[in-house]
């Protein structure tokens, strides 16, 4: 493939709920494909299930995306989800960090939060109903619920959620913001968190940041003050941004073909598998997961030299016919459903049980409260968010 033929990445979707056409052709004919990133740098895109799972599980594929020869994802440095790795956060240190953070995301803790999550969802839906149809499900429920949940978990005022939204977007920017805007926003975010940590240190509460403050320094200095701030920032962003977007996409997918919604109305036991299938079927997930190769590795019969940057498309992998029967169809009864939406291996999403609880709860409340819910515009007219590393819909107009 000549330099002129290397496609720009991310690819365009035919519509907000349809996958890029390149996924299928690459899975069939070029599973390790050269791509050009927004920065102008080149990387390799992996689109098959087995290859993506192999790379995400292999410690030789690292998160050291600040290496001198690593491809830059964006032209601007956002300080975002792909640039929060630290030299002290690999191997044993990373495992210890995961173990500590994981205590705040235990099934028991998430289960204990479920009644509050359901009550908040019902409150948000009630407010949406009072305002009347048509309504934008994204701004009415999809955005405020996960922000409230992660703020509750971290002990951060929910009243600051609009500021979090802006700070998050700058961290996740590919082309949306200038470097000056990104730098200013990240300094504001860091200053806010330093003040919040100081306040929690003075008056600890029953929240995750208070717990993290207690263990700073307990790992022979491995969980430093810097890592505490970085962790808090990452959780605030990842804890609400991806789930907020997924709520809108899930409901849009289920309403795009109303027979899906009717099946759920008839059988509530399908809520859990429907959430999993929505995660698998998501055609608009965003960038994917980049990895930097520390030594030569073979993937899909191709030898990749050390210094290679690869991008794992979990969403393309989730539509691989080699892994899923009738992968192009949305099957609400699919089981088992070993999708890769949350990643796999040592860096899989640590908050996935919380995300699943939120998605299942939203679906249950909407089915119970608004059984006549439908899209207020044709599915093909839905617009996706642009310029960010994460995927999502600008609006999901609904009526009932």
TrEMBL record:
Domain of life: Bacteria
Protein known as: Cytochrome P450
A Pfam cross-reference name: p450
CDD domains: Cyp158A-like
Region (Disordered), start-end ranges: 1-23
Family recorded in the similarity comment: Belongs to the cytochrome P450 family.
Keywords: Heme, Iron, Metal-binding, Monooxygenase, Oxidoreductase
Cofactor: heme
Cited InterPro entries: Cyt_P450, Cyt_P450_B, Cyt_P450_CS, Cyt_P450_sf
Gene3D superfamilies referenced in this protein's UniProt entry, alphabetically: Cytochrome P450
């Amino acid at each position: 493939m000549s330099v002129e033929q290397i496609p720009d990445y991310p690819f365009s979707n035919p519509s907000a709920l349809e996958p890029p056409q390149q996924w299928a052709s690459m899975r069939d004919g070029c599973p390790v494909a050269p791509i050009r990133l927004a920065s102008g740098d080149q990387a390799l895109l992996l689109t098959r299930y087995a290859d993506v799972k192999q790379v995400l599980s292999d410690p030789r594929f690292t998160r050291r995306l600040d290496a001198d020869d690593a491809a830059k994802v964006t032209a601007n440095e956002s300080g975002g989800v792909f640039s929060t790795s630290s030299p002290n956060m690999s191997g044993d240190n990373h495992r210890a960090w995961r173990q500590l953070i994981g205590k705040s995301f235990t099934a028991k803790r998430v289960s204990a939060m479920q009644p509050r999550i359901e009550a908040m969802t019902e409150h948000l839906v009630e407010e949406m109903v009072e305002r009347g149809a048509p309504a934008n499900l994204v701004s009415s429920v999809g955005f405020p619920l996960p922000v409230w949940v992660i703020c509750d978990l971290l002990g951060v005022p929910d009243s600051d959620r609009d500021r979090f939204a802006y700070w998050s977007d700058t961290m996740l920017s590919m082309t949306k913001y200038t470097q000056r805007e990104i730098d200013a926003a990240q300094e504001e975010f860091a200053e806010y968190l330093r003040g919040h940590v100081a306040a929690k240190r003075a008056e600890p509460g029953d929240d995750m940041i208070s717990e993290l403050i207690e263990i700073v320094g307990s790992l022979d200095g491995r969980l430093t003050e810097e890592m505490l701030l970085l962790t808090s920032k990452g959780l605030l962003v990842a804890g609400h941004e991806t789930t907020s977007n997924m709520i809108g996409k899930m409901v849009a997918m289920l309403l795009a073909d109303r027979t899906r919604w009717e099946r759920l109305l008839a059988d509530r036991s399908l809520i859990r598998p429907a959430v999993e299938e929505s995660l698998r079927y998501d055609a608009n997930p965003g960038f994917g997961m980049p990895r930097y190769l520390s030594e030569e590795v073979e993937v899909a019969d191709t030898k990749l030299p050390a210094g290679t940057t690869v991008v794992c498309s979990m969403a393309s992998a989730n539509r691989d016919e080699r892994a899923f029967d009738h992968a192009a169809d949305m099957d609400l009864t699919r089981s088992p459903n070993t999708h890769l939406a949350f990643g796999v291996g040592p860096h899989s999403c640590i908050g996935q049980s919380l995300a699943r609880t939120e998605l299942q709860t939203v679906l249950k409340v909407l089915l119970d409260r608004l059984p006549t819910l439908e899209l207020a515009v044709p599915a093909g007219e839905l617009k996706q968010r642009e310029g960010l590393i994460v995927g999502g819909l600008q609006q999901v107009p609904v009526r009932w």
